[in-house]
């Protein structure tokens, strides 16, 4: 089936499923509206979006970097509930932006620029656990469901890109059939979602045996790397950096017993 037709069929299925939207509770206890798409459809969209990034960006040929990221991803995902654990795939993309993302369907992408600020395995685990936190917190589902409710399922295709970059870009997305454009998967989440991913991610890294204080050092490095300039897109909707670091410090202190228990149980990552 041609790609455009396949996406059109998928968009139609999504439009029909909007009636099944439901209210649920997020990992931090807030109310979420999800279910605009089924998990199967969401996973398919995630896989297609991941393939788009692979087509657009060159992948690293540095075997050490690739193994390093795979190790961190597998160590973290082993701490997820059983229904979230299987089939995670990662890729390292050659791009100087200090960026990373995770998608439904178990896809993780890391840009080589992240290694300039994530300087050890604990700091890299903070990045990856945060991104995986978005997936397991159903933030992609929540964003698509909210978009459907705001603009109607018929306008889903191109709506997210159009709202961010203008009508011309939205029309181009509709014509080009870009999953990234249609779903906004790689655009920053809301501050509420970003804060929630911080909480979930820091918990995950501690359970996996990574030092939760690594998240503090990571964001200190991120702030220093901006050198007073406009922060990278990855930071654009995140909470105030100083407030964020204070929150990470407070959580790290409370998570030290979790980290110590993980180490005592033999979870001692040696990724890099």
Please characterize this protein's 3D structure.
There is one protein chain. The chain has 272 residues and is mostly helical. The chain has twelve helices and five strands. It has helices at residues 3-17, 39-56, 63-77, 82-85, 121-136, 139-151, 159-165, 167-176, 179-183, 191-207, 214-226, 241-264; strands at residues 22-25, 31-34, 89-93, 100-103, 107-111. The strands form two sheets. A three-stranded mixed sheet has the order 3-5-4. It has a two-stranded antiparallel ribbon with strand order 1-2. A hairpin with a 3-residue loop joins strand 4 (100-103) and strand 5 (107-111). Helix 3 (63-77) packs across helix 5 and helix 5 packs across helix 10. The protein is globular and about 40 Å long. The relative contact order is 0.14. Residues 5-9, 14-19 and 150-176 have low confidence and may be disordered.
Number of strands: 5
Strand order of the largest sheet: 3-5-4
Shape: globular
Q: Helical proportion?
A: 55-70%
As a whole number of angstroms, the C-alpha radius of gyration is 18 Å
**Count of helical regions:** 12
Order of helices and strands: HEEHHHEEEHHHHHHHH
Structural class assignment: mainly alpha
Please outline what is shown here.
This protein has 272 residues and is mainly α. 58% of the residues lie in helices and 8% in strands.
Helix-strand layout with pairing:
Layout: H1 3-17, E1 22-25, E2 31-34, H2 39-56, H3 63-77, H4 82-85, E3 89-93, E4 100-103, E5 107-111, H5 121-136, H6 139-151, H7 159-165, H8 167-176, H9 179-183, H10 191-207, H11 214-226, H12 241-264
Helix pairs in contact: 3-5, 5-10, 5-11, 7-8, 10-12, 11-12
